[in-house]
Amino acid sequence: MSQVFARARADGRAVLVGYLPAGFPSVAGGIAAVRALAEAGADVVEVGLPYSDPTMDGPVIQAASDAALRRGVTTADVLRTVEAVAVTGVPALVMTYWNPIERYGVDAFARDLAAAGGAGAITPDLPPEEAGPWLAATADAGLDSVFLVAPSSTDARLARVAAVSKGFIYAASLMGVTGTRERVGAQAADLTRRVRAVTDTPVAVGLGVSTPEQAAEVAGFADGVIVGSALVKALLEAERAGADPGEAEVALRGIVAGLAAGVRRPEPSVPRG
């Protein structure tokens, strides 16, 4: 995944990371949706592992994840979804809370994720202090381990997270849960600056980005722009409107294309790198 960020930096732009949960609107529909992200311009695809007790997800992602769980999505389905992204040549990450990994088996999950072609995983509720077994498993499997920082993180905490993160560091743009917002907030640029003071690992900003204009704003100071709720919302609205899968996919591709254009015209703010 480091190569993706390096190429984008050489091109003077940020990386677009798109998120969708596996299994929504169905396993097959979710696979088609993540492939659409990869084909429409996402540089990295986050595949969400639906979980019954998400602490970071807002109402949009929760609604889709709950539907996927009710429809019987499994961890094996998540890995199949990862594989569908990987065959496109776009790196695929799993975004998962710790409990599903622990239940599956730490070493087994890392091994099977790598076998599916996954590039790594984001574990939002796993503290670095308790990540020893996971770091060992991901190192053995050749996976990137992505950890989160927030505006409330102390400088010492930023350094601790930076020391264990591989691929990139996920910077939450503000305090709270995921969801689209009218403004990303000035905290994101300051947090990015603080992270850069302790590491050369790329910084990708998430929580709140939903428009090409916001993507361009964040691309002006961050190495990556993470978009989730806006993409999930498109699938939810299509399902509620009774649209066929083809229509939903067209809508999704249009949103991703706009966001991809946004990260390619960054608004100068804090220099990347």
What's a concise summary of this model?
This protein has 273 residues and is an alpha/beta fold. The chain is built from 12 helices and 9 strands. It has one domain (2-143, 209-263): TIM Barrel (Alpha-Beta Barrel), CATH 3.20.20.70.
Q: What attributes characterize this protein structure?
A:
273 residues; alpha/beta; TIM Barrel; 9-stranded parallel β-sheet; 13% strand; Aldolase_TIM; Trp_synthase_suA
CATH superfamily: Aldolase class I
User: How many helices?
Assistant: 12
**Outline, from the CA principal axes?**
globular
Number of strands: 9
Mean pLDDT: 92
Share of residues in strands: 5-15%
Straight-line distance between termini: 16 Å
Question: What is the rounded Rg?
Answer: 17 Å
Architecture (CATH level 2) name = Alpha-Beta Barrel
What name does CATH use for the topology? TIM Barrel
The description of the largest β-sheet is: 9 strands, parallel
Helix/strand-derived category reads alpha/beta
Low-pLDDT runs of 5+ residues are 175-181
Give structural notes:
- With 273 residues, the protein is of the alpha/beta class.
- The protein has a single domain, classed as TIM Barrel (Alpha-Beta Barrel).
- The chain contains twelve helices and nine strands.
- The longest helix is centred in the C-terminal third of the chain and has 19 residues.
- Tetramer of two alpha and two beta chains.
- Its EC number is 4.2.1.20.
Topology summary:
Layout: H1 2-10, E1 15-21, H2 27-40, E2 44-48, H3 59-70, H4 75-86, E3 92-95, H5 98-104, H6 106-115, E4 120-122, H7 132-141, E5 144-146, E6 148-149, H8 155-164, E7 169-172, H9 187-196, E8 203-206, H10 212-219, E9 224-227, H11 229-240, H12 245-263
Helix pairs in contact: 2-4, 2-12, 3-11, 6-7, 10-12, 11-12
